[in-house]
Amino acid sequence: MPYCKECANTRLFGSSKVPPVAPTANGCVSAMLGHFREDGQIESISSVGADKKTLIAARVSPEEYFDLCLSCYSQEIVWTQQRE
Ligand SMILES: [Zn+2]
Prior knowledge:
Oligomer: single chain
Order of helices and strands: EEEEHHEE
Number of domains: 1
Strand order of the largest sheet: 4-3-2-5
Structural class: alpha+beta
Mean pLDDT: 89
Bound molecules: zinc ion
């Protein structure tokens, strides 16, 4: 599961690899938002302009995409393997 070293956020992340279509629109810093559950699994991915291919790839390999904390905008993200 993703974990922000700065603010301990584990729920909402973006991707610096998928930049927003319009950088200033809505203050979004990523064209893709990943919502994670408490157990670290992806609950849903919201597209703010990202194409379908990118969304599918991010769901398959989330650790390769989600590297941006959307709570404090830090990129100090660590991935831990916590599975039941
Ligand atoms: Zn953070």
